[in-house]
Amino acid sequence: xxxxxxxxxxxxxxxxxxxxxxxxxxxxxxxxxxxxxxxxxxxxxxxxxxxxxxxxxxxxxxxxxxxxxxxxxxxxxxxxxxxxxxxxxxxxxxxxxxxxxxxxxxxxxxxxxxxxxxxxxxxxxxxxxxxxxxxxxxxxxxxxxxxxxxxxxxxxxxxxxxxxxxxxxxxxxxxxxxxxxxxxxxxxxxxxx
Length: 193
What we know:
Elements: E1 9-10, E2 15-16, E3 20-21, E4 27-29, E5 38-44, H1 55-60, E6 84-86, E7 92-94, E8 100-102, E9 109-110, E10 113-114, E11 120-126, H2 135-151, E12 160-162, H3 163-166
Parallel strand pairs: 3-7, 5-11, 5-12, 6-11
Antiparallel strand pairs: 1-2, 4-8, 6-7, 9-10
């Protein structure tokens, strides 16, 4: 079995080394002194059910053309982002430095604490609720979680949840196709599913 990739974070900049950087304008400052305490796993595909292409990058950068696909008409003006995207082949793209707030969670709450964007890292996996995620994505996610937990002490507790856990009834991702057992070594007991 191939080992999970190793990732390294520059703590001063909040950027992963040796991954593609596409910095999103859809970010802002975390509350003063706030470091990441939670990782939120999402699933995304654009258009729905299709993989590859430039559309996720363009959505997170605010330049998704509304006329490129009928689905885009309803989302082209959204101001959303995530810290990271893990493509189907395991390639990682960073959109927001970890010390900044990405706009990924929306209306959300974790253990009674609202506004999860303030204290979380958002990781999007290219996929759908129904389509199995790829081995390379789980391997990359485990490597990313280990790097985050090594860099940010509050993440060492291993609190990793799905978007559906912080926005129940509103969000379903990463969906039933996501195999939580494949990242169990990086999670706190009792989180999410």
